[in-house]
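Here is one chain, start to finish.
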Amino acid sequence: MALCGALQTRPAFLGAKLAAKQQPAARPAAALAVSARYRGHGTDLAKVPQFERHGKDSGSPEVQVARLSARVLQLTEHLQEHKKDYASRRGLLAVLSQRKQMLIYLQRTNKAKYEEMLTTLNIRPLKPESTGRG
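Its structure:
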C-alpha cells in the first residue's frame, strides 16, 4: 500500500484521517525548571570588587580566584550540612582544582598580587611541588 509522493491514509477502522505525527502537549515552564546547574545563588561575592582592574572585569586571574574562593566557601558550608552530597563534593574538588591552576599562574606572573590574594582571601600557600616547576 505504498503511494508514491501522496500522503498515506490511515486504515478505515482507525478513521479516515491523515496519519500525521502529533506533537506532545507542551509542558508548563515550571515543570522544566529543575536543574542541577549552579546559578550563583547564596555565594557571597563581597570581596571580588577589590580585585577588579576595571568596572566590568570578570576575566583577570585575581577576580577569577576571588570568585572561585567565594564558591569554595559556599560549597564548604553546604557540605557541612549535607555530608553525603557527593555530587557537590565532586563540584568542590573541580572548583578547587581551577582555583589552584589560577593561583599557580598568578604566582608565576605576579608574585606580589599572589601574596596579597593569599592573605586577603585566607588561602593557604601552594606547596612547592604543586607549581609544576619541579
